[in-house]
Amino acid sequence: MGIEATLAVIGGKWKPLILCFLGTGAKRPGELRRQMAPITEKMLTQQLRELERDGIISRTVFPQVPPKVEYALTARGKSLREVLIAMSKWGENAIAARQAAGEAVTLQHPDHNGYLQY
């Protein structure tokens, strides 16, 4: 099934969030980690390496001291735009339904504007 192939690349707790944050432009690892607290540095590094291996993001190392590294979406990563927006909208609707039922749940990151610019 196609969904298995998609989940093999972007499945998990952190990868969709990484992609959404990179949807606003290239980011340094420290910037991503601050936006995604409480992710650990080790987990972020692992997820970034897997996304890079799968051709979803690119890693650019700038030749300076200290070294500067940035991650950005590739064309293949940008092609996930509609999938991520659909996931975000579904989640927003699910949260709204739970709130309407009296649950005290909140949306941690209430927009998907990063992906709307592509």
List keywords for this structure.
mainly alpha; two-stranded antiparallel ribbon; 55% helix
List the helices and strands and how they pair.
Blueprint (H helix, E strand, L loop, with lengths): L1 H9 L4 H8 L6 H7 L5 H13 L3 E6 L5 E6 L1 H4 L2 H20 L12 H4 L2
Antiparallel strand pairs: 1-2
* Helix-strand category: mainly alpha
Helical content, roughly? 55-70%
Query: Alpha-carbon distance between the termini?
Result: 27 Å
Average pLDDT? 90
Beta-strand level of the residues, as a percent range?
5-15%
Domain HTH hxlR-type: 1-99
Keywords: DNA-binding, Transcription, Transcription regulation
Organism: Lacticaseibacillus yichunensis
Protein name: Winged helix-turn-helix transcriptional regulator
Describe the protein.
Residues 1-99 form the HTH hxlR-type domain. With 118 residues, this protein is mainly alpha-helical. It contains seven helices and two strands, in the order ααααββααα. It has helices spanning 2-10, 15-22, 29-35, 41-53, 75-78, 81-100, 113-116; strands spanning 57-62, 68-73. Strands 1-2 form a two-stranded antiparallel ribbon. A hairpin with a 5-residue loop joins strand 1 (57-62) and strand 2. The protein is globular and about 55 Å long. The two termini are 27 Å apart. The mean pLDDT is 90.
Q: What's the quick description here?
A:
The chain contains 7 helices and 2 strands; from the N terminus they run ααααββααα.
